[in-house]
Amino acid sequence: xxxxxxxxxxxxxxxxxxxxxxxxxxxxxxxxxxxxxxxxxxxxxxxxxxxxxxxxxxxxxxxxxxxxxxxxxxxxxxxxxxxxxxxxxxxxxxxxxxxxxxxxxxxxxxxxxxxxxxxxxxxxxxxxxxxxxxxxxxxxxxxxxxxxxxxxxxxxxxxxxxxxxxxxxxxxxxxxxxxxxxxxxxxxxxxxxxxxxxxxxxxxxxxxxxxxxxxxxx
Amino acid sequence: xxxxxxxxxxxxxxxxxxxxxxxxxxxxxxxxxxxxxxxxxxxxxxxxxxxxxxxxxxxxxxxxxxxxxxxxxxxxxxxxxxxxxxxxxxxxxxxxxxxxxxxxxxxxxxxxxxxxxxxxxxxxxxxxxxxxxxxxxxxxxxxxxxxxxxxxxxxxxxxxxxxxxxxxxxxxxxxxxxxxxxxxxxxxxxxxxxxxxxxxxxxxxxxxxxxxxxxxxx
Amino acid sequence: xxxxxxxxxxxxxxxxxxxxxxxxxxxxxxxxxxxxxxxxxxxxxxxxxxxxxxxxxxxxxxxxxxxxxxxxxxxxxxxxxxxxxxxxxxxxxxxxxxxxxxxxxxxxxxxxxxxxxxxxxxxxxxxxxxxxxxxxxxxxxxxxxxxxxxxxxxxxxxxxxxxxxxxxxxxxxxxxxxxxxxxxxxxxxxxxxxxxxxxxxxxxxxxxxxxxxxxxx
Amino acid sequence: xxxxxxxxxxxxxxxxxxxxxxxxxxxxxxxxxxxxxxxxxxxxxxxxxxxxxxxxxxxxxxxxxxxxxxxxxxxxxxxxxxxxxxxxxxxxxxxxxxxxxxxxxxxxxxxxxxxxxxxxxxxxxxxxxxxxxxxxxxxxxxxxxxxxxxxxxxxxxxxxxxxxxxxxxxxxxxxxxxxxxxxxxxxxxxxxxxxxxxxxxxxxxxxxxxxxxxxxx
Lengths: 218, 218, 217, 217
Hints:
The complex is a heterotetramer, with 2 copies of chain A and 2 copies of chain C.
Chain A: H1 3-12, E1 20-23, E2 42-45, E3 49-53, E4 74-81, H2 84-92, E5 98-101, E6 105-106, E7 112-113, H3 128-134, E8 138-141, E9 145-146, E10 149-150, E11 168-170, E12 174-179, E13 182-188, H4 194-199, E14 205-206
Parallel strand pairs in A: 1-2, 1-5, 5-8, 8-11, 13-14
Antiparallel strand pairs in A: 2-3, 3-4, 6-7, 9-10, 11-12, 12-13
Chain C: E1 4-5, H1 7-12, E2 19-22, H2 32-41, E3 46-49, H3 60-65, E4 69-74, H4 81-88, E5 93-96, H5 99-110, E6 116-118, E7 132-135, E8 138-143, E9 148-159, E10 164-165, H6 174-177, E11 181-192, E12 211-213
Parallel strand pairs in C: 1-12, 2-3, 2-9, 3-4, 4-5, 9-11, 11-12
Antiparallel strand pairs in C: 6-8, 7-8, 9-10
């Protein structure tokens, strides 16, 4: 199992029946693959639909039904069209139960940077700032390190997405819960030790006596 | 012709083809009777429809289609349903071309009081404050006097509806245009002299050399 | 999927002292069966946030007549003489709000905005005691957001996901208050199978709705 | 009743230096024929207010490629490398705005509100240079309203009153920008007789629309 699949399978277990969930482009969008249809979860695409469904078979694409990345999708029975004001009203107003986003850095206070690398990548924040500020629960899904550098840092060198403390960080090595006390190590990836995680993490982690291994969605 | 019909027929002549118009309850609502269907005017009821039509025949009322007074109405072809946020967005945003409202007093500055008589009548302002503040053109339709007292006053004794200067006042005696210079007497009702109007008006009027008689809609 | 409750079961959820946003404009689009159940149960000291208090015998007017309401936030109470009489007698506290401001305050509460910047009410009694901010050289009142413990919605069609569609002037406050109630209870005229309401006709996405009221026969 | 114009005639109305709000999200719901006509005519120094600049060869991307845009106000330009390259080269000035803030700023402009009070962006680069107000003990950014000379709308159905209906995710910015353009031009996929679009499916009332673009064959 590669790192991305592992992260997606672990994040999938955070999703509860009946939730409204927004999945970011890229890795986060993979989470949907591991959420059983029986949960009655609704996925929001912030460009305008509640009840996002799978990619349609070839020849059945509708140019009026796409996700936030511009790719063709389908809609489940019971889907609703929403304009951008309603879409972000749901997000900002806390009606979105969970957002899963990629991250560039998470700092000691549990704050996320994920929208800009000054001088290199200035794509615009899109919906990220509203999602992180407004969603009821914010889950960051990202690799633990990039080019040998920890993405869980004491202080973000990159511009913050929001002052809001995120609720959970899931990486290929660990599950970390930012709390008022600091970053709590909650789970280890299969075959990864607490020492491995500490070695790969720049920020200070609160390590409880027992750090169980992640359970992944099937 | 009674005073109300005269006022309604004169106001009707202010309405131009294709306008979106909101008529207040009572006297203003009579204006619709004198606007020919060929003008392509759309009437808004602020409770939620653009394209308000006449009262339906007995037995054809729909409990989901009423005007702002709660009375049954019909809808013209090309009507649109709007919720209250859109309805007042159209009003406040200046998309409403004209509103016709009743008045209690208009002062020397052309400001309207029409929502409250302290200690006597405190019904709430409903949509009046938004209509007067936001509509592109505000026309006040009211009797010139009540119980022998002028309703066109130097200063309103009653609470103002808005700081906004209204655009036209149509009474059973006169048409008056509030301007930066003051209240300009524009027209006389049939058979009414300028002296009659001045005698019935507490506020100061600017009287041009020629004050023509009103032309009424048929 | 949401089950559908009887109106009496919905009224059981509402405690004394609760704040209720109630849809409808002069009782058009108001959920009458929920209101009847609240009157039946006799819930007291309610705060009602709505466009108006209808008229005696209709919609919110029934709550007023039954003496269940302690506070009203509305744009207009003029067609209900009982509301006016109780206000003058000090039995009901009334906050009167311009209609366009009221609906935007509810929308702001439901959509996580900090309030409303509006020119409506500037220089009038409505301005009293309120913060004013200047934006690009123009002055605006800061009107605070509104939320409530419950939003009581009158709708046309619902499905069991909770999606709602409305008819004509029965929209009014309903699609907006659906955003601002901690618990949202919808009383549709009909409940149809999931998939029957076209996505483009849904004005209130089902994710906002907590409970549906079943049609009682 | 509104007549229907050819796209070229609509483009003729747009002068150099105009500000355009353009509907669409990654070119879904964007009025492509109007854009093609603007490119054809070569209108210069445009300000574009939109969610994004799509990608080269699609929607707003065509305006970028043709070098007609001087300023962009958008939430995301990441999928159009040309926009990014021109921004870095100083050919296009970009104001990047959080998506939810951007759509509310447009709505505020169109609905006569003084601005938007939002928590989004507080404590980030987005806050820089902006007014902050405190409401009920919480701090919010004051984001200014946005309007434009033209709103260019992609719609599904129109009637000759100008009423517009949209499909699925092709709604996006379209129903909101229809409120904020001094002149509103809609490009529907079909124009149907008046009365064909049910009142409850109309998302943009015809009174907001100035011109329709006829289907060219």
